[in-house]
């Protein structure tokens, strides 16, 4: 099961050397500076995990592999379940095991809580965690709607804690390399249109029992899950400029409880940019970003989870044209291969831990991360409203 | 300029051998049988070209390379222009040069006319050609609307001549290989969603002077040109089942004369299938088909004009899923490389010539080709109507 590339926490020299395998523009290095900022003498940031969700297994490994983080505690509603989770997910012998979420939040040694709970529980537990002065790594969708999320943000701000959502692909070095391409006015130019897809064919058990199809747990269904990634990637491509309008597409599919299990939408900006996306639990896996600018084209087909951990690809084309008889392309698109020094979720943990460490030394929490979480949620809300209004255009809030 | 792969007409053994480089399902072999059907003893089918459009250069080469076709005649509105075209495009010494379209149509030796004229002239010249008993290879868009096209079809049917549009990629062996994948219920399953793009960044001269931006010549603009390919590829993916509804997307761009130079739309079927497309003269080149089924995913990024002539690629994935910790894909998509025995436009000429030869021997014209032309035009008409109605949903005609 576990990828053979990384089975133990690397030492600093390992990834200080490795991170030079890819190059990024200077404006992007803020997300890549953890090897330099960290020091082996400093105490790792202590993570506690609320609940034993399937995704928490992946995050446990990510924390274990992060040089500046400590896989410190896990809580479940029963101590037996928490113990079983810790023992099967590589928790160190010193790890704390809690039989309730409250008791984990009361542990003063814990710096960060990772919250992979069902979305309907985010408001309660994130606000409580903030009040307990825990920095928060919050799974997506961050809330049931932007209003709820604003309450979480307020709690984090008033308690001086960092908030970041768990969108792992943001932290892959490929993402920085693609951003460099998209930001280059000579290579990509002005964004004209972007199409994103995240679909997977869930099995019957998922479609019946997963929290993501339950109206009381994850009422946003496929839109809040797969759609989160589509919308985030569109906003990322558009440099986080919010669209003015969202129009859901007829053909959305609902389960017996009225939860969306497949839908699509188009997003529209004032300058004429158009984005479209499709998210679904009913189609074979696809994870595309196709961004077309006035001068360039970007293709990536595994943006959420790269095909493999050790490297990731994308295709970039600039000023593509035809040969003289229009029988071929000149130039052809180029394939870019980006080596990954660490799993993307470990990079996320490292980045988050660095922010927490800086706050411990007196810095303010970084507003970038909750800002893009909120924008993503605002677009989700608009698409959901458009679906509910029979696919009418809906203004995106701000 | 000319691709070095093919500079002279191949003999039959050349491509009888070569066509076994790819395999297709038995249902598709009708488009691949020309090496067997043809015989070196038979007279090649004689092509005449109406006008000296840029695209006619490519077709001249295609006809010259086709073993069962003869690059027989060209007409322009002045004989000087026709002479210059013939001499710079490899016409044989016996070729006929005409100073008017009418005189070419009056040549009883000509079997086929290729009509690359501006769309507004298609109705007149295609109907006249049919009356002169010429088989017709008609550039896209086939007409300004489906009603006009129906008049052309009636003229062809009443005169017993074959009609086919000039959508070259239909004839590439990759297209047959992709169809085989899409038709496989185990590998692709049921089509759920498809997104297609054809964009290119036209230069200022094109945007000012090309026939495709002139309201009196090609009033459908980018929708009739690049959009034709998008819509055809969507219909092809959907096995030519017409959608019920078309909804153009806000953000369409018009030139000063009101001609569409960029637009997008979504298409909707009764079973919930959704297609989206973007076509534009204002974005860097992109030519994507992304089709997602219940079991499989297809990606092709150069469907209109392959990157190079001698081979073409596509990516196919079946029952893609995650590894245990959701850190990679199992299985990964597979890349398929299809060798091309001849340029796709030469295959089109060969296929058309075979149909003409069969008609000369008593067969009826093949209705498949005008049927899919008409369906493509019907969807274009619906998208255009939706644009004109301010992006309201429009029922697709039938």
Automatic annotation (TrEMBL), chains A, B:
Family: Belongs to the Gfo/Idh/MocA family.
Domain GFO/IDH/MocA-like oxidoreductase: 183-298
Name under which the protein is recorded: Oxidoreductase
Pfam family, one: GFO_IDH_MocA_C3
Domain called Gfo/Idh/MocA-like oxidoreductase N-terminal: residue spans: 45-164
Lineage: Eukaryota, Viridiplantae, Streptophyta, Embryophyta, Tracheophyta
GO molecular function, one term: nucleotide binding
Top-rank taxon: Eukaryota
Signal peptide: none
């Amino acid at each position: 099961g576990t990828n053979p590339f990384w089975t133990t926490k690397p030492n600093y020299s390992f990834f200080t050397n490795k991170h030079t395998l890819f190059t990024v523009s200077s404006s992007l290095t803020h997300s890549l500076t953890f090897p330099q900022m960290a020091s082996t003498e400093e105490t790792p940031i202590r993570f506690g995990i609320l609940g034993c969700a399937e995704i928490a297994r992946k995050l446990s490994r990510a924390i274990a592999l992060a040089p500046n983080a400590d896989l410190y505690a896990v809580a479940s509603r029963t101590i037996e379940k928490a113990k079983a989770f810790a023992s099967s997910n590589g928790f160190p012998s010193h790890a704390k095991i809690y039989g309730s979420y409250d008791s984990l939040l009361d542990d003063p040694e814990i710096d960060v809580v990772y919250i992979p709970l069902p979305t309907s529980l985010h408001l309660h537990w994130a606000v409580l965690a903030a009040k307990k002065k825990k920095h928060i790594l919050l799974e997506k969708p961050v809330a049931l709607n932007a209003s709820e999320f604003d309450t979480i943000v307020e709690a984090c701000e008033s308690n001086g804690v960092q908030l970041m959502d768990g969108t792992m692909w943001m932290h892959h070095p490929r993402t920085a390399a693609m951003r460099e391409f998209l930001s280059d006015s000579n290579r990509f130019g002005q964004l004209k249109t972007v199409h994103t897809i995240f679909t997977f064919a869930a099995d019957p058990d998922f479609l019946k029992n997963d929290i993501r199809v339950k109206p009381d747990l994850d009422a946003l269904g496929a839109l809040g899950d797969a759609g989160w990634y589509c919308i985030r990637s569109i906003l990322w491509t558009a440099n986080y400029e919010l669209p003015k309008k969202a129009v859901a597409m007829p053909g959305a599919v609902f389960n017996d409880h009225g939860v969306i299990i497949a839908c699509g939408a188009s997003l529209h900006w004032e300058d004429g940019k158009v984005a479209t996306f499709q998210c679904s639990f009913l189609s074979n896996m696809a994870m595309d970003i196709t961004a077309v600018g006035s001068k360039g084209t970007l293709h990536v087909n595994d943006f959420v989870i790269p095909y493999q951990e050790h490297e990731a690809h994308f295709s970039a084309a600039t000023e593509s044209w035809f040969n003289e008889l229009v029988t071929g392309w000149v130039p052809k698109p180029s394939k870019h291969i980006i080596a990954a020094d660490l799993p993307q979720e470990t990079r996320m943990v490292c980045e988050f831990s660095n922010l927490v460490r800086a706050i411990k030394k007196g810095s303010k929490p970084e507003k970038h991360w909750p800002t893009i979480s909120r924008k993503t949620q605002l677009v989700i809300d608009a698409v959901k409203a458009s679906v509910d209004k029979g696919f009418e255009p809906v203004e995106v809030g701000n």
